[in-house]
């Protein structure tokens, strides 16, 4: 289990089922863990 999986497991335990995120390579491990847990990812386009 890596840090991304620990983070996503904690979010899942708290009832998080949807995450809004700005996509980038730096977050790919978190995205994989979110997909594995069945958490929906909403990709946003701007980071203002």
Biggest sheet, spatial arrangement of strands: 1-2
Q: What is the number of domains?
A: 1
Query: How is the main sheet built?
Result: 2 strands, parallel
Overall geometric form: globular
What share of residues is helical? Answer: 40-55%
User: Which whole number gives the mean pLDDT?
Assistant: 94
Task: Determine the number of helices (DSSP H or I, runs of at least 4 residues).
Answer: 2
Query: What is the percentage of strand-forming residues?
Result: 15-25%
If you compute it from the alpha carbons, what radius of gyration comes out, rounded to the nearest whole angstrom? 11 Å
Kindly name the structural category: alpha+beta
N- to C-terminal separation? 33 Å
Query: Any low-confidence stretches, pLDDT <50, length ≥5?
Result: none
- The ordered H/E elements are HEHE
Q: How many beta strands in the DSSP annotation?
A: 2
